[in-house]
Amino acid sequence: MPSPLLSAQITSTRIRGGGHDDLPALARLVARANSVAGAPHIELDELDDRLELGQLIVLELQPNELVAAACTAPHRGVVFLVIDPEVASPELEHRMIGVANALCESERAAPARVQS
Known about the structure:
Mean pLDDT is 78; it is low at 1-5. By secondary structure, the protein is α+β, with helices and mostly antiparallel strands. It starts with a helix and ends in a 7-residue tail after the last helix. It has four helices and four strands, in the order αβααβββα. The chain has a single domain (4-109), classed as Aminopeptidase.
């Protein structure tokens, strides 16, 4: 269970769009998550390919340090979700999935762009 201080910081922190600049922090987050026995592992080389095809959302607790990240892909939904084991909670997981699902829904609802 996360400490009350971490929980308070997480609830007051906003999820934001992520990008390639977040890859070093994402790699550290994945390493922390992969260190937990029995947890599904994410391979870093898979992330680059998925980021090219989708959108990344991140939860940053401190500058350049992520505590959660999710990637969505058009017509596929959430393709990965990773949360720092020290702050993982059902509430945080639901929050990240909710935002990722909302992003997917907005992509589906957006009209096709016309190229000129």
